[in-house]
Amino acid sequence: MAKTKIALLYERLSRDDELNGESFSIQNQKIMLEDFARRNGYPRFKHFTDDGVSGTRFDRPGFIAMMEEVEDGNVEVIIIKDLSRFARNYSDAGSLIDNLFVQMGVRFISLAEGVDSYLNPDSVNSIIVPITNVMNDQYCYQTSKKIRQVFDYKRRNGQYIGSFAPYGYIKDPKDKHQLIVDPEAAETVKKIYEMCLQGTAKLQIVMYLNDHGIPSPTAYRKLKGLPYSPAISDAPMWGNKIITDILRNPIYTGDLVQGRRRVKSYKVHQIEAVPEEEWVRVPDTHEAIITHETFDRVQELLKRDTRTAPKKRELHLFSGFLRCADCGKAVTRSQSGKNVYYSCSTYKKRSRTACTMHSIKHNRLEAAVLFAIQYQVSTAVSYSEIVTRINAAPLKKSQSHRLNDQIAAKEKELTKITRYKQSLYQDWKDGEITQQEYRDMKADYERQAAELADVLARLNAERAELANGVDKEHPALVAFAKYQSIETLTREILTDLVDHIKVYENGNISVHFKFADEFRRIAEYIEINTTDTAEAG
């Protein structure tokens, strides 16, 4: 026995419709469509509804369910209020109406436009349908554009526009665009950063939080009656991604950084990452949970190749810091019995002809790095004392003969290159060089001139910085001086002071410190202000 076919009534309302003042609510649409169905001989009907979903998307739950009914072959007619309810994507809407529904024998009715594929087949193919679809498409584009402009304005004015406050904050009840600290969750955020700086791996941070019964962000929001996204399924457990997101989010420093992700377009609702240079940053918009210094140190740690030892929760002391002095690849840790040593990863894992072993024992490495840091700390303390004496003297000198000589030499070289380049055109016109030679030589001179201009800009900036003098509270001096009592190495100390460590084939090492350029300039400032004094004495 054949099935009795039914009518499908489709209603849709998006947030954009509500924002733009469209009056037909879902309930109004249902009443209108049911009345039409009954009056036109369709007592058996079924509603399919999408509430708060954009018409540019065809992955709408109600729409998908309706199309499954169509494919099952028991649908006689689809009735909608107007074409914009059906879709605001011109090409996809036209394809469904002109092709699929015709093939499936489904009557299509749009009340507002008077479209009826059974009583008036020409109405489907008439110009009104494509024009209306194009207008709907353009309407959606313009609406999307306006909304993006509003969001961009709010971001640049330091207003938080996220649907939910980041974990550690809540929205101010008096101003939903302002964040205030949630003390309980903020303590967990601080603990996560503290454990990361102590060398605890992210997986072990996850284990610690779950083992201690600390609710995950979604579970916490549910527990406190705060808004949360049902799409996020991390409750009630913490996971590696949540920890990573918290450790990488600059919002905890008190700065509002928004626009890190965006929807591809008003038609393609996929989320894509935005390049960092396009993020909208507004400093000091809310109370900080983490200092900028702590955040920056954590970012440095996250960049390194870090792994934990089996059955241990802490990262290896030198993990992510060691490089082979010859091939530049990582120097990795190995253990044989009680002996721990490091060797070149290229030699160990790729080819024994591509590099050599570059082996060094852990105890020797640790002692050598500790000695190098202690020496650099001692140098920083000494520099600070000398700078204090220089700054207390009646006159300070800031002219570097080295810099002045370098700048003069580079300016002379740039003048010569410019003169050569200017004479090229006449050489070509006089037939001394070909057009291709003219182009090649001109390009080469332009490249050299650009490189010289960059060098001059750097040297002039260095001279200007030197002219401002050096303060004993210079960040480079302070960073090292705070470790005057260092007796043992920790990852925190390495992260603060060391950029990387090179391991040589003979077992020697070189420690490359942070602030290397700053130390060189401080040394020069000291030399300028002490050499002449010593000679005069």
What does this structure look like?
Strand 4 and strand 5 (115-116) form a beta hairpin. Among the domains are: 6-143, 3-Layer(aba) Sandwich (Rossmann fold), CATH 3.40.50.1390; 169-303, Hect, E3 ligase catalytic domain fold. With 537 residues, the protein is α/β, with parallel strands linked by helices. Residues 18-23, 264-269 and 533-537 have low confidence and may be disordered. Helix 5 runs antiparallel to helix 7 and helix 14 crosses helix 19. The strands form six sheets. It has a five-stranded mixed β-sheet with strand order 2-1-3-4-5, with helices on both faces. The chain has a three-stranded mixed β-sheet with strand order 12-16-17. A three-stranded antiparallel β-sheet has the order 13-14-15. It has helices at residues 15-19, 26-39, 61-72, 83-86, 90-104, 121-125, 128-156, 183-197, 202-211, 217-224, 240-248, 292-303, 345-349, 362-392, 401-429, 435-467, 475-481, 491-497, 516-536, and strands spanning 6-13, 45-51, 75-80, 107-110, 115-116, 169-172, 175-181, 256-258, 261-263, 271-273, 280-282, 322-324, 331-336, 339-344, 360-361, 498-503, 509-513.
